[in-house]
Fold:
Amino acid sequence: MRSQREGLGLSQEKVGVQIGIDESSSRSRISRYEIGTYEPPVETARLIAKALGAPLVYMYCDAEDAATLLREPLSQQASARLSYLSGCRA
Structure:
């Protein structure tokens, strides 16, 4: 979550405010979600994912490789899968 947020040039406060968290507590709440102190409710996770331009499942990835793949646009994901499959033999 943090790498996607930073990659978009967004502060924790900006993401928090964007999803409706009060400005005075938005930075600390987003920080707690990023470090895993707290897990956001599903609807909050959905809002964060939308703010970060990622699918909801991205919020629940433990593996960085999987999270990276999920952040890519669907066209790039399909292209990567096709490339992988073209190297496979039936």
